Amino acid sequence: MSERTNKQWVADLSAPGEAQEDALSDLRAIIMRGLPYALSKWLTPSDPQFDSLSEEVAQDTLLRVLDSLQTFEGRSKFTTWVHKIAVRIALTELRRKRWRDVSLDELTERAPGEGPLGILATHEAGPEVVAEQSDMIEHLQRVISEELTEKQRQALIATQIHGMPMEEVARRMGSNRNALYKLLHDARLRLKSRLEEEGLSPEDVMAVFEPG
Amino acid sequence: MGESVDIMRQLVKMVARTQQRELDCGEVFAVLDQYTEAIVAGEDVSAEFALVIQHLDLCRDCLEEYEALLSVLQKIH
Ligand SMILES: [Zn+2]
Q1: pTM of the model
Q2: I want to staple A202 with a disulfide (CB 3.0 to 4.6 A). Which of A82, A137, A179, B16 is the partner?
Protein backbone atom coordinates (compact mmCIF):
# COMPACT_ATOMS: atom_id res chain seq x y z
CA MET A 1 0.00 0.00 0.00
CA SER A 2 1.50 3.32 -1.01
CA GLU A 3 1.88 6.08 1.56
CA ARG A 4 0.08 9.23 0.55
CA THR A 5 0.31 12.72 1.91
CA ASN A 6 -2.93 14.46 2.88
CA LYS A 7 -2.81 16.36 -0.39
CA GLN A 8 -2.37 13.18 -2.39
CA TRP A 9 -5.29 11.52 -0.66
CA VAL A 10 -7.56 14.43 -1.44
CA ALA A 11 -6.29 14.73 -5.02
CA ASP A 12 -6.65 11.01 -5.71
CA LEU A 13 -10.15 10.86 -4.24
CA SER A 14 -11.40 14.04 -5.88
CA ALA A 15 -12.12 12.76 -9.38
CA PRO A 16 -13.37 9.42 -10.71
CA GLY A 17 -10.77 7.27 -12.35
CA GLU A 18 -8.04 4.79 -11.64
CA ALA A 19 -6.34 6.90 -8.98
CA GLN A 20 -9.62 7.23 -7.13
CA GLU A 21 -10.27 3.52 -7.27
CA ASP A 22 -6.83 2.71 -5.94
CA ALA A 23 -7.22 5.24 -3.17
CA LEU A 24 -10.66 3.92 -2.22
CA SER A 25 -9.36 0.39 -2.09
CA ASP A 26 -6.39 1.40 0.08
CA LEU A 27 -8.64 3.48 2.30
CA ARG A 28 -11.03 0.60 2.71
CA ALA A 29 -8.18 -1.61 3.92
CA ILE A 30 -7.10 1.10 6.37
CA ILE A 31 -10.63 1.39 7.76
CA MET A 32 -10.93 -2.40 8.11
CA ARG A 33 -7.60 -2.53 9.92
CA GLY A 34 -8.75 0.10 12.44
CA LEU A 35 -12.19 -1.31 13.20
CA PRO A 36 -11.19 -4.18 15.50
CA TYR A 37 -9.54 -1.59 17.76
CA ALA A 38 -12.33 0.94 17.41
CA LEU A 39 -14.91 -1.68 18.34
CA SER A 40 -12.89 -3.49 20.97
CA LYS A 41 -15.15 -2.35 23.79
CA TRP A 42 -18.25 -3.42 21.87
CA LEU A 43 -17.54 -6.49 19.77
CA THR A 44 -14.69 -8.92 19.29
CA PRO A 45 -13.74 -9.91 15.74
CA SER A 46 -15.02 -13.40 16.53
CA ASP A 47 -18.52 -12.04 17.18
CA PRO A 48 -20.92 -13.19 14.45
CA GLN A 49 -21.98 -9.55 13.92
CA PHE A 50 -18.46 -8.32 13.44
CA ASP A 51 -17.87 -9.04 9.75
CA SER A 52 -21.14 -7.72 8.45
CA LEU A 53 -20.93 -4.62 10.62
CA SER A 54 -17.36 -3.93 9.45
CA GLU A 55 -18.32 -4.29 5.80
CA GLU A 56 -21.26 -1.96 6.27
CA VAL A 57 -19.23 0.60 8.21
CA ALA A 58 -16.38 0.56 5.69
CA GLN A 59 -18.79 1.08 2.82
CA ASP A 60 -20.70 3.90 4.55
CA THR A 61 -17.46 5.54 5.62
CA LEU A 62 -16.10 5.63 2.07
CA LEU A 63 -19.30 7.22 0.83
CA ARG A 64 -19.25 9.78 3.63
CA VAL A 65 -15.58 10.55 2.96
CA LEU A 66 -16.23 11.19 -0.73
CA ASP A 67 -19.23 13.32 0.16
CA SER A 68 -17.40 15.48 2.67
CA LEU A 69 -13.94 15.60 1.14
CA GLN A 70 -14.10 19.38 0.81
CA THR A 71 -14.68 19.74 4.56
CA PHE A 72 -11.34 18.10 5.40
CA GLU A 73 -9.17 20.95 6.65
CA GLY A 74 -5.91 19.08 6.99
CA ARG A 75 -5.65 19.67 10.73
CA SER A 76 -4.97 15.97 11.28
CA LYS A 77 -3.66 13.15 9.17
CA PHE A 78 -6.18 12.31 6.48
CA THR A 79 -6.42 8.71 7.71
CA THR A 80 -7.15 9.91 11.26
CA TRP A 81 -10.01 11.96 9.89
CA VAL A 82 -11.29 8.88 8.08
CA HIS A 83 -11.01 6.69 11.19
CA LYS A 84 -12.97 9.34 13.09
CA ILE A 85 -15.78 9.10 10.57
CA ALA A 86 -15.69 5.29 10.71
CA VAL A 87 -15.88 5.36 14.51
CA ARG A 88 -18.93 7.62 14.44
CA ILE A 89 -20.71 5.48 11.87
CA ALA A 90 -19.88 2.25 13.72
CA LEU A 91 -20.95 3.43 17.16
CA THR A 92 -24.11 5.01 15.80
CA GLU A 93 -25.05 1.67 14.29
CA LEU A 94 -24.16 -0.33 17.40
CA ARG A 95 -26.15 2.04 19.61
CA ARG A 96 -29.12 1.85 17.29
CA LYS A 97 -29.08 -1.95 17.34
CA ARG A 98 -28.54 -2.19 21.06
CA TRP A 99 -31.38 0.15 22.00
CA ARG A 100 -33.75 -0.80 19.19
CA ASP A 101 -36.44 -2.30 21.41
CA VAL A 102 -36.39 0.31 24.14
CA SER A 103 -39.07 2.96 24.20
CA LEU A 104 -38.42 6.27 25.88
CA ASP A 105 -41.73 6.25 27.72
CA GLU A 106 -41.16 2.81 29.19
CA LEU A 107 -37.71 3.83 30.25
CA THR A 108 -38.66 7.04 31.96
CA GLU A 109 -42.01 6.11 33.47
CA ARG A 110 -42.32 4.00 36.52
CA ALA A 111 -45.32 2.09 37.78
CA PRO A 112 -48.72 3.73 37.16
CA GLY A 113 -49.40 6.48 39.65
CA GLU A 114 -45.76 7.28 40.14
CA GLY A 115 -45.72 9.58 37.16
CA PRO A 116 -43.11 10.33 34.54
CA LEU A 117 -40.59 11.73 36.96
CA GLY A 118 -39.70 8.20 37.85
CA ILE A 119 -36.71 7.83 40.02
CA LEU A 120 -36.05 11.54 40.22
CA ALA A 121 -39.35 12.08 41.98
CA THR A 122 -39.92 9.08 44.20
CA HIS A 123 -37.88 7.19 46.68
CA GLU A 124 -38.42 5.09 49.72
CA ALA A 125 -36.22 5.91 52.65
CA GLY A 126 -34.31 2.85 53.74
CA PRO A 127 -32.88 2.36 57.18
CA GLU A 128 -29.34 3.05 55.94
CA VAL A 129 -30.18 6.56 54.88
CA VAL A 130 -29.87 9.28 57.41
CA ALA A 131 -32.57 11.92 57.64
CA GLU A 132 -30.22 14.57 56.34
CA GLN A 133 -29.68 12.66 53.08
CA SER A 134 -33.35 12.01 52.72
CA ASP A 135 -34.11 15.71 53.13
CA MET A 136 -31.46 16.63 50.58
CA ILE A 137 -32.84 14.19 48.03
CA GLU A 138 -36.32 15.59 48.52
CA HIS A 139 -34.99 19.09 48.14
CA LEU A 140 -33.16 18.25 44.91
CA GLN A 141 -36.24 16.52 43.57
CA ARG A 142 -38.24 19.67 44.24
CA VAL A 143 -35.60 21.80 42.50
CA ILE A 144 -35.66 19.48 39.51
CA SER A 145 -39.43 19.51 39.24
CA GLU A 146 -39.58 23.30 39.56
CA GLU A 147 -36.71 24.20 37.25
CA LEU A 148 -36.81 21.64 34.45
CA THR A 149 -39.31 21.05 31.69
CA GLU A 150 -40.86 17.65 31.20
CA LYS A 151 -38.63 17.12 28.18
CA GLN A 152 -35.50 18.05 30.08
CA ARG A 153 -36.38 15.66 32.88
CA GLN A 154 -37.09 12.87 30.44
CA ALA A 155 -33.80 13.43 28.61
CA LEU A 156 -31.92 13.58 31.90
CA ILE A 157 -33.42 10.33 33.16
CA ALA A 158 -32.83 8.50 29.90
CA THR A 159 -29.22 9.61 29.42
CA GLN A 160 -27.93 9.91 32.98
CA ILE A 161 -29.83 7.20 34.81
CA HIS A 162 -30.38 4.63 32.11
CA GLY A 163 -27.31 5.41 30.02
CA MET A 164 -29.26 5.70 26.81
CA PRO A 165 -27.11 7.27 24.07
CA MET A 166 -28.06 10.81 23.14
CA GLU A 167 -28.63 9.95 19.51
CA GLU A 168 -31.15 7.32 20.55
CA VAL A 169 -32.97 9.67 22.92
CA ALA A 170 -32.90 12.42 20.32
CA ARG A 171 -34.33 10.24 17.56
CA ARG A 172 -37.23 9.23 19.80
CA MET A 173 -37.89 12.88 20.61
CA GLY A 174 -37.81 13.89 16.96
CA SER A 175 -34.66 15.86 17.67
CA ASN A 176 -30.94 15.45 17.03
CA ARG A 177 -27.87 14.90 19.17
CA ASN A 178 -26.65 18.51 19.12
CA ALA A 179 -30.04 19.89 20.05
CA LEU A 180 -30.38 17.33 22.83
CA TYR A 181 -26.96 18.24 24.20
CA LYS A 182 -28.07 21.87 24.29
CA LEU A 183 -31.30 20.91 26.03
CA LEU A 184 -29.34 19.03 28.70
CA HIS A 185 -26.78 21.81 28.98
CA ASP A 186 -29.57 24.28 29.57
CA ALA A 187 -31.05 21.93 32.19
CA ARG A 188 -27.72 21.74 34.02
CA LEU A 189 -27.33 25.52 33.88
CA ARG A 190 -30.78 26.02 35.39
CA LEU A 191 -30.05 23.61 38.23
CA LYS A 192 -26.69 25.24 38.79
CA SER A 193 -28.03 28.76 39.05
CA ARG A 194 -30.91 27.67 41.28
CA LEU A 195 -28.52 26.00 43.71
CA GLU A 196 -26.30 29.09 43.60
CA GLU A 197 -29.30 31.30 44.39
CA GLU A 198 -30.02 29.10 47.37
CA GLY A 199 -26.43 29.42 48.51
CA LEU A 200 -26.05 25.66 48.19
CA SER A 201 -22.67 24.72 46.72
CA PRO A 202 -22.05 21.35 45.07
CA GLU A 203 -19.57 20.69 47.88
CA ASP A 204 -22.31 21.21 50.48
CA VAL A 205 -24.54 18.73 48.69
CA MET A 206 -21.78 16.18 48.23
CA ALA A 207 -20.82 16.45 51.88
CA VAL A 208 -24.32 15.31 52.81
CA PHE A 209 -24.03 12.32 50.47
CA GLU A 210 -20.51 11.25 51.32
CA PRO A 211 -20.51 8.17 53.50
CA GLY A 212 -19.12 8.75 56.98
CA MET B 1 -32.65 4.47 48.21
CA GLY B 2 -28.91 3.95 48.01
CA GLU B 3 -29.68 4.25 44.31
CA SER B 4 -31.29 7.67 44.78
CA VAL B 5 -28.22 8.86 46.62
CA ASP B 6 -25.96 7.67 43.80
CA ILE B 7 -28.10 9.31 41.17
CA MET B 8 -28.27 12.61 43.00
CA ARG B 9 -24.57 12.55 43.65
CA GLN B 10 -23.88 11.97 39.98
CA LEU B 11 -26.29 14.72 39.03
CA VAL B 12 -24.70 17.23 41.39
CA LYS B 13 -21.25 16.37 40.04
CA MET B 14 -22.47 17.14 36.53
CA VAL B 15 -24.02 20.38 37.66
CA ALA B 16 -20.79 21.35 39.37
CA ARG B 17 -18.84 20.81 36.14
CA THR B 18 -21.33 22.75 34.05
CA GLN B 19 -20.06 25.91 32.36
CA GLN B 20 -21.90 28.76 30.76
CA ARG B 21 -20.13 28.14 27.48
CA GLU B 22 -19.77 24.53 26.34
CA LEU B 23 -19.10 22.96 22.97
CA ASP B 24 -21.87 20.82 21.53
CA CYS B 25 -21.21 17.30 20.20
CA GLY B 26 -20.81 18.53 16.62
CA GLU B 27 -18.17 21.05 17.60
CA VAL B 28 -16.29 18.35 19.48
CA PHE B 29 -16.53 15.95 16.56
CA ALA B 30 -15.08 18.59 14.26
CA VAL B 31 -11.80 18.63 16.20
CA LEU B 32 -11.78 15.09 17.61
CA ASP B 33 -9.18 13.83 15.10
CA GLN B 34 -6.89 16.75 15.87
CA TYR B 35 -7.38 16.38 19.63
CA THR B 36 -6.77 12.63 19.60
CA GLU B 37 -3.58 13.01 17.59
CA ALA B 38 -2.34 15.60 20.09
CA ILE B 39 -3.06 13.16 22.94
CA VAL B 40 -1.21 10.35 21.15
CA ALA B 41 1.72 12.70 20.54
CA GLY B 42 1.81 13.47 24.26
CA GLU B 43 1.20 17.17 23.74
CA ASP B 44 -0.12 19.43 26.45
CA VAL B 45 -3.73 19.91 25.40
CA SER B 46 -4.99 21.63 28.53
CA ALA B 47 -5.13 25.13 27.09
CA GLU B 48 -5.95 24.65 23.42
CA PHE B 49 -8.52 21.91 24.02
CA ALA B 50 -9.92 22.95 27.39
CA LEU B 51 -13.49 23.02 26.06
CA VAL B 52 -13.09 19.61 24.41
CA ILE B 53 -11.81 18.13 27.66
CA GLN B 54 -14.73 19.67 29.54
CA HIS B 55 -17.22 18.24 27.03
CA LEU B 56 -15.69 14.75 27.15
CA ASP B 57 -15.99 14.90 30.92
CA LEU B 58 -19.74 15.45 30.62
CA CYS B 59 -20.72 13.60 27.44
CA ARG B 60 -20.46 9.84 27.46
CA ASP B 61 -21.28 9.49 23.76
CA CYS B 62 -18.42 11.70 22.67
CA LEU B 63 -16.13 10.07 25.23
CA GLU B 64 -16.85 6.65 23.75
CA GLU B 65 -16.05 7.96 20.28
CA TYR B 66 -12.84 9.55 21.50
CA GLU B 67 -11.76 6.34 23.24
CA ALA B 68 -12.49 4.28 20.14
CA LEU B 69 -10.46 6.64 17.94
CA LEU B 70 -7.67 6.68 20.50
CA SER B 71 -7.44 2.87 20.43
CA VAL B 72 -7.16 2.94 16.66
CA LEU B 73 -4.40 5.55 16.64
CA GLN B 74 -2.48 3.87 19.43
CA LYS B 75 -2.54 0.54 17.68
CA ILE B 76 -1.97 1.29 14.04
CA HIS B 77 -0.04 4.50 13.67
ZN1 LIG C 1 -20.94 15.03 23.07
Answers
A1: 0.90
A2: B16
